[in-house]
Amino acid sequence: MRQGLGMLWVGKRREKLRELSPSEKRRLILAFGRDGGAAVAREEAKSVVAAAQNGGQWFFCACNADQNTVLVPYERTYVHRRVASSNAHSDRCPFAVDPVQQLAIVRSMRPHPPEKAFNLLSDFASDRGPLDEDRTAQFNTVRRSKLARVLIALAEASGLQTQDVGTRSINLQFNDLISQAKNFKLVGEIPLASMLCTYPPKLGEFLGDFNRRAARFNWPRGSRAHGIVIMKLICVENRNLVFSKEVKVPVSGPIAIFGRSDAPRLKDRPYIGIGLIAKQSATSPAEVIRAYIHPCYSHENLMLVDSNYERETFDYLRDLQSEYAGRVDFKIEKPLSDIGQRFQESTATDAEVDNQEIDAHGAPPILIPDFVVRFKERVRSDNDFFVETMGFSSQYYRAIKRRIIPEMRRALGGILHVEHDFYFPSDLTLDERHEIFRKAVRDKINKSSN
Q: Within a domain: residue 381?
């Protein structure tokens, strides 16, 4: 059985399997995939599900190279994703989560409203934090952690994710980031800035003074006293966030890391880390009980990025920004939050409204452009464009991109896009592909000045 995302087979265990036709695969993905779930799509998939169940067959998903995973027909109209004898689907698989879970993930990636408190920590009896945080955000198959939401809210509000010509000093960038804490609430009406440590060498003093600090506030019922530490770090070693050779911040609980399944040990790229400070019990001392870290562009630029591919795309955009400075000025945005317009009015408690919307249109995909190029005020805004870094060659990955790019265009007001493709055209060298991207961006810039 061939392995790969989007490959589906049908049959009985230990017997010869039949690969589903493209039409059958498409119907199952639209009906039961993470971005699917519409009633029309489920109706169209019924015949595929019923035929398999009538024959005593299962669907076998080839998303995992090591172990096959299954989809079990149920009541001739639905499929179960997991059974006791099946492994989990690959994080990139369309069946990794169901449409309702997908909606929860998308909501967690929407911008955090400044008027709403973060509510990071429950009281001792009901805290499930480690269960929620002890996963990476590697492939967008889990909700964005609450700590990640704090860091991303500060980064976007500070302007860190909007790059103009030139680079501010690393200290100014970090100070702009943490200065936004005054505009957000930790829990209830308690300001985030009032329980924030921003200098790891002084963390010991902050922890020692934790009780006095916390006693100044009336902590809402159902929560408990907590604080935040934010720092630039170079790696993680033995469950320590490494600020410098001399200063390391121990973390007693899980460390969630964007884009990785293990802790970064190389010191070639910096990270911004955010840790949750609290007591493990009413009588224990305050400590950093869990943390989240996100990669930055470089040691001189703290802009949060998702991958090395994006770093390379940004390099080319940055070079062109400098080249055209004074003639055609533009800013480069690196969004971190979902820009989708659907489900804006409903909340996580509007289950009935959510189900009606999913029945009508399916679950929303995650819409986060890689970069957005915006020209200055003297240039018409309809010349703005967004950039998608094409960092994978798989057909399934590209099918997703083909589907979400038009949705991102609509969400961004109809602007066009440029692709930076690392794999295609396959008959060209990588340098030639880079040159195609540079030329496409130049054409957009030159057009904006006409």
A: yes
